[in-house]
Amino acid sequence: MGGRPTRVTNSIRALRFARGEMTQAELADRVGVTRQTVIAIEQGRYSPSLETAFLVARALRAPLDEVFGYPEDTPDGT
Amino acid sequence: MSYEEKGTWVYLVVSVVVYGVYVGVLLSTAQGGTLADVAYVAPLLWTIVASVVAAVVVRIVVEVVRPSESYRSDERDRELARRGVAVGWWGVIAGALVALVLALVEADYFWIANAVYLGFVVSAVLSSVTTIVAYRRGV
Questions:
Q1: N or C: which end of chain B has fewer CB within 10 A?
Q2: Number of domains in chain B
């Protein structure tokens, strides 16, 4: 096992700062997860459920695809 | 470290240490003689009780020394725990299979009981290590 476990990317950290420097603890509280889970999502160590992803986006007042991204497949399908 | 991750560490350490003490008691009682002749029932039952009590006590001590921010589990905790259980299950299966073979060859009850118990311990180790690795490296 090496590198990032998930290909899902996110801009949570940038959006937190854009939203009045919201702390990880505040975001965790709004979403209903632990602060450690927010950290894991931010660092790409955990892909949240779709429901939690929507809650994160709502808490950050941003559309889902602005908060989370997924790389386009390369031509060879990898 | 989250409350649930700390709990997983406690489960791992207590499982290993208590089993180590149990094996130590058996070996010292046998004093070089045949293990199967050791009166293992009482130590085994006490070991099971001790592991439950130790897990609760150590859990409380850990929280007193390093309190958690919250005591709830979330979807990530539950998912990682599920992954641990899925892997740990193989320990129970292995213990049961070994016990089955031992019963078929009419081995001493000592070996059958201890194969099952070791299966539980292996299961606890596999599941907690899997969960901890998932916490550390991500999933």
A1: N
A2: 1
